[in-house]
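Dear Dr. H.,

I hope your travels went smoothly. While you were away I took the liberty of generating a structure for the chain from your last submission, since the lab meeting agenda had it listed for discussion. I wanted you to have the full record in hand beforehand rather than looking at slides cold. The sequence, exactly as received, is reproduced here:
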Amino acid sequence: MHAPVFIALLCILALSTSPKSRADEQVLEELLVVRAQPAVFKVVAFGDIVVTTPKSVSLRPASEEEKESTVGKARTLLEQDYQQGVAKGEIDRTKSLKDYAWEAIADNPQRFLRASIDSVTETVRQDVVYSAGTGFAVSREGILLTNAHVLWGMVVELDDIGVAIEFLSDFMERALLTIASQVGEPSDAMAPRVVSALVKWLVPRSHVVAKFKHAEVVLKYDFPESFEQWRSRHGKFDETLLGALGRYGDSKLPLTVRADVLAAGEPYPGRDVAVLRIRPEIVFYRSPLRASERSAMIDARDRIICLPLGDSDLVLPGTRVQAMGFPSSAFDPKSMSAEAEFRMSSQDGQIGQLKPLKGGGNVLEMTALIDFGDSGGPVFDRKGNVIGLNVGGNTNARVTLAVPINVAKALLKKAGIKPDLGPLTKQWVRGLRAYGQGRYADAVKEFDLLMNDQLTSPSSLVYPHAVLKYKNGFVVRMWDTARRRMTK
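The corresponding predicted structure, in token form, is as follows:
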């Protein structure tokens, strides 16, 4: 054999068996969504909602030139129109002023009502969840990426009648009472029409802004504490806890921890990125055991499964992708349990073109359908590398947009963060690779080690069993599936 050929074969052999080969970091394509699930989280923004509305609303006075011509010396435009209509036979004399007034207001509130212009009222709702989106882990220290627009103070659009009624309800109540004091209360049948008309009239005169305070990351959806594990660790069962056991069955809650914003771009498609870091902190469980509060330390360091970041500059049109997140459209409260809201969804599609934006920068066009709640979620290619973040688009036109991941990588660098996937991520990938190759015994072993490592904590805990098991449900499911396949 010629020396050059022999050397070439040795190189190929070395590359194929090297423990640092890229193959060690990849899994079968059909397992890519499973690979990503433990690293994707629901992110919520807490803050104050400031609702600015006119201070008062009143009935428009009768016009001066026609006031004297009306029979009853009308004080308001409503009374004036009513009296003139009755006098001309245009309004049935049996119809009361009250019935006419509410019908007229429902048909044309602009004509009969006026709102204060220079005098406004601000109503503040404190510490409410005003926004929800998706984030994903990129480094072992509890570092997550999401969209900036998921967090920052934002103007709440009142283009939905339900949203408008919710935020303008206080002013609506005052306005209805003011009008009713002059013409009487509307009938039950008329009330819905009146409310709808008043809301539409009031929306252009009102302003709703959300002021960001802090972000929280939903780690899991589970029982606040495990009574059985508490009992096994402490021997006897506290009587107070025992009394609450009957109320425990329906007490599942989202377990959340705060996250600090380390860096952020702008809520603009091409720069819409924020970097979060989960705080190690004490979490207090107050429900259902308000009389007997318990707590646990939640520490994300070295217990988090992460996603690798790709290079969006190398992404070509037609690249197949998967977009993940928590879309509001996937949750139906009428038929699904509350827990379903905290189960992520995934949509496949492909990249269209890199589209330039006004003011500079680009955005990735794709066909993966995303919706409200998906914002900030990962878009990964068929090798499992994240190439973008969901940011928005037009789902009716089947065109959606993603922030190129290189924008996020630049922001991470600016924040002094060099992503490190950590040992648990590598262990998770090894388990999935073994599963994909049919080596189920090896997969079970890797998943066993992974679950044990996630439970190990250097911190002194009040309740060790409550240590964060970041998305451990996905690991347990794969462990159980691999174990059952071993028996077949």
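Two observations you may find useful: Residues 57-115+159-205 form one domain. Residues 3-24, 224-250, 284-293, 457-470 have pLDDT under 50 and may be disordered.

With kind regards,
E. W.
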